[in-house]
Request: fold
Amino acid sequence: MARLLVQLKLKLLTNALRSSRRAKVSFIVSTTLAALVAAGTFVILALLRGGSAPVAQTASVFTVFAFGWLIVPLVSFGLDATLDPATVALYPLRTRPLATGLLAASATGAWPLANVIGLLGVTVGVARGGASIAVAVIAVLLQVLFCIALARLMTTGLAGLLRTRRGSDLAAFAVVPLFALYEAFAQVVPRLAAEGKITAATFANIDRWLRWLPPGLAVHAIRDAASGHLGTGLLRLALVAVIIVAISWLWIRLLSRALVSVDTSTQSTAVRGRALPFARSGIRGTVAGRYLLYQRREPSMIVRWCILAVVMVASSVSTIRAPAYHVGLFISAVLAGGMLSVFNANWIGVIGPAFTLEASALTGLRGIRSYVAGRNVALAAIGVPLAVILSFGIAAFAGHPLDGFLALPIDLAAIGAGLALSSLYAVSLAYPVVKRVGSPIPGAADGHGGQAVAGTFGSLFGVPIVILPVILAVNLTSSVPSAVRLPVLALAAAGYGLAAAWGAGRWAAAIAAARMPELCQVAASSKL
Amino acid sequence: MSELAISVHGLRKSFGTKEAVAGIDLEIAAGSLSGLVGPNGAGKTTSLSMMTGLLRPDAGRVIVHGLDVWADPVAAKAVIGVVPSEARLFDRLSGAELLEYAGRLRGMPADEARTRSAQLLDVLDLAADARRLVADYSTGMRKKAALGCALIHNPPVLFLDEPLEGVDPVSADVIRRLLSRFVTSGSTVLFSSHVMETVEVLCDHVSIIDQGRIVATGTTDQVRGGKTLQEAFIDLVGSKATEEEDLSWLGSSSS
Reply:
């Protein structure tokens, strides 16, 4: 069974190379990125050799990878096409071969391989001699297996909630606290380290806890073998293996239960409003009304706004109490626009087949322009107040509440730039998305990970580039009295953001009008 | 022949090396209820998508209600109503909001869109569920809501892709009655299906498509030629059943 499913997974992956040119490019981008991650991780772990706390630091890296495996499937770019368990669960398979097969299939592909190769840096960084190198190889394989099993358990645990529409709504919100934790870990720790606040002693302290978790157990097993305690090392690895088996067993139990449960949520309550809001304000108002309803009623939209808020706060948190708190304040304002663009860079694919309804109704360039403008109005109606409130909140927490006015121009310009870039990306990089069993948020369909990555990085790097004049204006006018400077900057930035969103919106509408049949096909290919 | 509502000439579409539609010609008279039948993968959905401006053809011409769909897609879309095969709608809108939204996108005044939405929901037997989210609708309710969206601007020509697929008998009857009433007023319906019984009962004109080609077209009586439509269809498309001896192991009497 394992061999068959691995062959199937390999077939699915290699089929991307026989697919469209875009799918080929996506596959190559994804594989190249995986290779870079593999090489980078290997070098970092190898360089820990001779450091002050290689074991503790390696245990931290292993734990970060495990946490990444928990998060990535939930907010993934679709980089790793995992097999949908529902497709094989239909066959009369016993739990053990099914679990083994699905885990083996999950472990097949560029990203799992990149994890293995990268983490094998421990053979240089921690291992000493033949036996400990062998232990290190086993430890790395177990670590990656643990990560895969944990990710499966997590997503399938949420899938239990996905049995009902309301349950799936709730499941989507589980992403927010996980993402907040991840952000705290990924943002705060590296910055504290850069400021010299994290030392070998800090890692030693953290390691006192991490050593009892499976990633820590795996790393300490290598250390044991390297220091001549091979038996203790093997015992630790055996414990990790037992934990993997237990997680896999629990995962299959959850999966079996989720697949045979029925949706009882169809007897739902009615919505409050009778009519569509702003429907009297032309197509722009109608579309804005529909988008606003979706931002409120569609859980994944709320989740995205929450994640945007988390990213804004997390990006400023390390500098907030330092003299250079302005840096964090400005970065968070830029990220407001960047994340807005990330989440909306594929709005046609995310709408899915329902876009056909809009495409068949919108007649002409004027209608499409109004449509894009309506979408921008709705997103700005939420994005601008959210970003401004958070900027003032961050400034207040830094002890300088009035400095929120300094971030205000950047907030306004960044939201405008985010709307502009997402409008353009959505019509030029549109790709279908798929909602997979076990994941509350849809990811890129197989073979389209490259477009997702391009949209994400294009947004994160594009927004600061677009609003560079505003950032420079804020920084270079500090000698001008605030009473003059701040209102002028805010008005100019608002105008700049508005012009960017308006201009890019018209450009995007022209592209969309020319490519409407192709965009319809992309939307129709989404499986939500 | 009376005035043509739909006229298709030399329509072609390939996906890579696979030729999905291999140059079809089709003429549908105004006021007719016409069926496009064929086995799965015959090219029904691809053909309808090209006829409605949702998929760009490699070659060919489509005239709907006197308008060239690909030369003037803007004008053509205004006279077309479409119900896609998978009734994937904006499921976070209520039924009433969805129909109103479809009407407003078509440029209808808000009050008129609201009034027509309420009337259509009533006729489609969805009035009681008008304020429930479409996400909570059953398949039949979704199909009816999609039909409402396609009819709200009163198009002269309506295209439906598998409108009765997965629909319960009661909802199917509501849809059938509404379509009959629609064509009685002089409007035209072209719908795809692979359920011969439905097409035979409902349609006055039938076209059979197989492997991207129209293999028969005419009035329902002409196409079936004294047989049932199912029999005529099998004769034309051919049964691809495997010889029995190849499946000697199949069945409870086998060991």
In short: Chain A touches chain B through 43 residues (CB under 8 Å).
